[in-house]
Amino acid sequence: MGIECRNVGANFCSSVCINVLRHPGWGRAQETYGEDPHHVGIMGAARPRGLAKHVMACVKHLAANSIERARFYVDVQMTNAPCARSICRISKCA
Q1: Which of 10, 21, 91 lies closest to 57, judged by CA?
Q2: Per-residue b or e along 8-44, where b marks 16 or more CB atoms closer than 10 Å to that residue's CB
Q3: What are the average pLDDT values for consecutive 10-residue runs of the chain, which has 94 residues?
Q4: What ranges in the chain are assigned the alpha helix state H?
Q5: Cβ neighbours of residue 19 closer than 8 Å, sequence gap 6 or more
Q6: What is the pLDDT of residue 29?
Q7: 8 A C-beta contact, residue 48 and residue 59
Q8: Which of 62, 67, 66, 65 is nearest to 89 (CA)?
Q9: Spatial separation of the C-alpha atoms in residues 25 and 43, rounded to whole Å
């Protein structure tokens, strides 16, 4: 993918989605690696490493970004327990 980006003149790729899928109706469900935080973390860490050999790469949709219709005005609040089960596990893989 990094080579393909370079071939079209790009030097940056932000295609890595590391949000854990929580609802199939999420508008970006096809961009994530699934609902297992460990799997999402492993794949989400590997992709930017591979891309970074050719272009700058970063991850997107980090946490609690699962509401498509209300994304501009929703206030997502999460207690520590769900955060520890998903987001923290993902970041440990990176």
Answers
A1: 10
A2: eeeeebeebbbbbbbeeebeebeebbeeebeebbebb
A3: 91 82 73 80 86 87 65 72 69 63
A4: 2-7, 37-51, 80-85, 87-93
A5: 28, 32, 40, 61, 62, 63, 64, 65, 66
A6: 75
A7: yes
A8: 62
A9: 22
- At a CB cut-off of 8 Å and minimum separation 6, what does 68 contact? 25, 26, 27, 28
38 phi and psi angles, rounded to 5 deg: -65, -45
Residue 84 tokens read as 């520890």
Contact call for residues 14 and 57 (beta carbons, < 8 A): yes
